[in-house]
Amino acid sequence: MLKYRMNIVILHGWGQNASLWKSLTDKLGRNASSFDMPGFGDEALVNPNWGVPEYADWVIKRIKNKKNVVLIGHSFGGRVTAEIANNNPMWLKAVILSGAPCLYRPTFKTKFRIMTYKFLKLFIPLNLRSIFFTTDLKRARDRGLEKVFRNVVVYDQIKQLKKINVPTLLIWGENDSIVPLYIAEEMHKTIKHSDLKVIESAGHNSNLDNPILFYGYVKKFIENI
Known about the structure:
By secondary structure, this protein is α/β, with parallel strands linked by helices.
């Protein structure tokens, strides 16, 4: 266990919770923590119409008494982290983003699906429209998070990324099929003072696929801040 002068806060991904990060927080020491965000784990949903900015405000209030904070955000948690970092608050010292879909870059297949749905929904009864929903959207709807999911997915943070001035580390799985590596590469080019580390053979949850290497990248980055 290592001691840092920083307070490390980890924000989990969509559909996940803080428990998945216990191993890493234990390794990082007593100044590291993670908590469930609204609608996930044991934290009740606050508002079904929230988007990334509202989650960012909630997190800021949750950690308002901490100083010298390093935010680590995975996937959806990375979106929230980037939203907070674009304002460069005085208490924020650095950020680590992993598998974070901060850029809205839909594939042709996705664009076609959206166009088809918008056309067909004019003729399909409301109770049958869900047959066109993706698995993720169906799961979100079942948990009362459909509007949140829709708000989050299309939220392009390119302008926010350009405003981040604190040291930033991107850790990505080489085989991330949910947020492909080219997204990380564009984010790396966009964020000033950023570095990109790619974990070979890892997927979207690179922290679970190769926890030792993931921890090593985090540890070295924080020690050099």
